[in-house]
Amino acid sequence: MSALINDFYRKIIAESSQSLVKDTLSIITRYHRLQGSSGLWNAVNELKEILGGLGLPAKTFRIEEGDGIGFIKAPISWDPIEAYIEIKIGDHVLARLDLKDHPTLLAAHSPGGEGCAELKVCGEKLCDGEAILVTGYLYDIYLNTDAKLILYYMKNRHPEAVPYTGLFLEPGDKMKGVVMNIPYSLALKIMSLKIENPRKKITVCWKAKINRHNKGLPILISCIGDDPGVVFISHICHPKPGAHDNASGSAGNLHVAYVLSQINPGFSYCNIWVPEYTGTVFLEDKLPWRPLSVINLDMIGSKQYITGSSLTLINPPRFMNTFTAPAGWIAMQKVFDTSKSFNNISQPGIRYGISPYTMGSDHDVFIVWGIDSIMYNEWPSKYYHTDKDTTETIDPEHLMNTSIASILTAYLILKSNNNFLEGLRRIYDSYLKTWYKSQAIKIGYSINYLSKYLVKKPLVEKLEEPLMKSPIFSRTLYHILGRARYLEIRKIPGIYTYLAVYAPLSEKIGLNNHVKHYKAELLIKWSRKEEKQVVDAWETIKSNIKI
């Protein structure tokens, strides 16, 4: 088996192309790919043309705005045309930001409008005013203020960058005030000025022009083979430039398609590009077969010395049987162990590792469908969701190599014999158990708790039907729990993955006391009060969605 793997690996390497990766990154990042935008269609159409040039089948599907499956709906069709803000103290211009230079300035799906007003500093609480400076859960802020301008900042983004935010408004939602984003450093400067002199008057003028249309959202699918196989998926949405998130994964996915088209791997596969979540939930009836495995490429191939990232393999929940994670782990080591120790033993040439299941990208949809799915993802990312997420932060060779690892993962899953796969799964599971114990010792987590509650063996082997249509997204949780309760519990670490995916799936498969299993799997230290809040929240959600 090892000889066959090495032979296939050499074929992949021979056909790989950094030039293709760089060209694809350049193409995708030139477009402002917000969900519901014309730029998203333009990027997808360019990729479709490239696929056609490679002789690969490629179909686009249109999702109407407002169409929904499970707990998610496609947002409105919307294009930003122009936008700027100017912040002044008297005649002194404190800052002026324009959409042309800062594509993330205008929040996705923001209404248009213009005006000038005194800026009121709200911080983490709402206050009255025509123009307010505020942070928090943006959807809640938008619903609960009549301000003509919401000037929004985020503490957990790069302080000098303009963050990316989106309202994800649905048809029928009220179009209210303009929502714009500013760097945290600028927000701090404004707040400091008000602290120094509360009577100091800070004014802001703004203009936002948008275009509402009915183009909907695109899905791009290219499939080869009639038998069930592997899906490679990447979300192609996000604002310009959006290089790491997620032009990188989309370029890597195209590289996968190119290489496989050149080597005829002998197995079925699909390459898919979607608007994140809102496209993925519509895939079930558009695929030629139910996937045996899914590999999600989201934020890969960065210059780690710039972004501070590590390449991570995100596992499925432990109650799901997986061959994809063991194959993905071996593939990562095969590709990235490029350094040598003193005694010539292969060592990692980049930072990489593994992670327990956490939600946050399109693999989540396949997980709730009961399909064996992993994600290759780099985290943290210094310029995540900001206008500084540029192609200069991407390493084409690293990106290309991650796509190579993805191809090798698929090969191991589909072309290995059952004995080899079972052996690989047992080795990986043994490694995971050791990993958990070492992590527990490192962070001071209870080994006894881990031994008692960490799921020992899969409860879900293989399913022919989805367990759920989609994860339970934040807007649904907000409306079920109510404003005050949702805003309180969203501060609890790890709660979103639990409420959105882990708890509902656990209920479906009959996993009792799943809050304890979740804490062990994610190595979470909730206080008794926090755990009770989480359990109570889940009981409220469960009774509302009839699980």
Label this structure with key terms.
globular, eight-stranded mixed β-sheet, 19 strands, seven-stranded mixed β-sheet, 547 residues, alpha/beta, 17 helices
Write a short abstract of this structure.
With 547 residues, the chain is an alpha/beta fold.
Poorly predicted ranges: none
Head-to-tail CA distance between termini = 44 Å
The whole-number mean of residue pLDDT values reads: 97
Tally of alpha and pi helices: 17
Q: What best-fitting shape do the alpha-carbon axes yield?
A: globular
Notes on the protein architecture:
The radius of gyration is 24 Å and the shape is globular. Helix 1 runs antiparallel to helix 10, helix 2 packs antiparallel against helix 3 and helix 15 crosses helix 17. It is α/β, with parallel strands linked by helices and 547 residues long. The longest helix is centred in the C-terminal third of the chain and has 26 residues. The relative contact order is 0.13. The mean pLDDT is 97. Helix content is 39%, strand content 20%. It has 17 helices and 19 strands. The strands form four sheets. An eight-stranded mixed β-sheet has the order 1-11-13-12-14-19-15-18.
